[in-house]
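Table 4 source record.
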Amino acid sequence: MKALVLEAQDQGPTLQEREPAPVGPNQVRLRVSAAALNRRDIWIRRGKYPGIKLPIILGSDGCGQVVEAGPGAEEWLGERVICYPAFEWGDDESYQSADFRILGLPDDGTLAEYLTISAENLITAPGHLTDEEAAGLPLAGLTAWRSLVTRGRAKSGDRVLVSGVGGGVALMALQLAVALGAEVYVTSSQSEKVERAISLGARGGVLYTEGDWGAQLREMTPGGFDVVIDGAGGEGFGDLAQALAPGGRLVFYGGTRGKWPRILPQMLFFRQVEILASTMGTPTEFDAMVRFVTEHALKPVVDSVFPLERGAEAFDHLEANGQFGKVVVKLPMEKA
């Protein structure tokens, strides 16, 4: 099979021939039709992710058809599916087990013509989504769902702020929050992205590149936000915390902009606010997210689609940070 293989840090993955992994009991082989990139893939490429092993086929997200099924998984044969993009969450819904790992490292991932995976990870792909849209749903949708719904406890009528709109998780958080009936605002570095977020249901937004963006947020929503969703951290984290309403929840799922600034405890405790961490999500949350996306006919935003042979360009495009939505790699679909 053809696969995008990362062999060295700070280089693009190269297109290589690999043997598909054998199919065992309760496993299936997917013919991958589309795979989506995540910021995680960029961090691995740059050597800034724990537990890196090389060579590796990256990719946590994908859509495909089951073309082979091992004993115990025959019911999935021929199904168009997406996958829960992780393994071994464990028995406690509140946090993952020590054995938890994400598809695409250390296990070979979706950026290949075939993927062998446990049938327990499968869920039927939503019928209203194209393969490219479905490929962009799993990791971003799951991360956004746990951050917004489980940890953030967002509900209809809440005022929600989503920072850094344009990335896959932020856009899914925006779409999910709008579908929940929340009043949603965004931040971005580009006015065009704010306008596009408004077209998806946001009430408004500010540019975090402007020095008074925190004051702009407070003027826009004088009572503050019930839920803030952030994946960046960095110096702006203090402004996000200050934008919380009494009893508000700030949920962060990443830290691409680095360390938080110093935050005065007095700014937080008197308003009874919460700062909550979130990573990925459980299989139960994945099922709930996919059902919600199907019920509300939500569609992950696809920024661009690259053919497999131009997969290294897809990595460069994502790393340039200009995208609005998911960067997807389309795989050739000759007969298996």
